[in-house]
Write a structure and sequence with these properties.
Elements: H1 21-24, E1 40-44, E2 50-54, H2 72-125, H3 138-146
Antiparallel strand pairs: 1-2
Amino acid sequence: MYPDHIPQRAVEVHQPTPIPSQVAHSAPVVPVQPGHVPAVASIVLPDGRVVTGYAIDAVRPEPVTAKPAVSRAAVNVALAGVGFLAVCGGLLLLTSFIAALTAFIGQLIILAAVIFGGWIAVQVLSGSGHKGGTTVNIRRAVFKRNHFHG
C-alpha cells in the first residue's frame, strides 16, 4: 500500500472515556409546561383545505430611547465658531498669497534693474572701437544715392 521509500509510522488509537450515568444525571429531568397554552387557529384556504397551527406574536422591536434635545443656541454658537475659523483661515491664506505675490514682483523688478544696469554699464565702460552708435559717411552715401561718379 505504501511505497517502499516512505517510512511507516505507528498509529495510536484513542478511545473515548465513557461518563458514568450518576454524574451525567445528577438532577432529575422534569418537563416544564408553558405558562399558557397558545391558541390554535384554523384557516380555510380557497381550495377547501384547512390549515391548523399556532398563532405567533409578531416580534416587537425595542423602544428607541429619545435623544436629548439640542438647543438652537448651542447649534448657532457652533456654526458661528466654524464660520469664524473658516474666515480667519481664508484671511490668513489671502494675506500669505498677497505677501508672496509682492515679494515675487519685487524680485522681478530687482532682476530687471540688474539686467538693464549691467547692459548700461557694458555700454558705458567699453572703450574699444568707436564710442557707440553707427558712423555714417554722409558724402559717400549722398554720392551713391544720387549716382554721382567722380
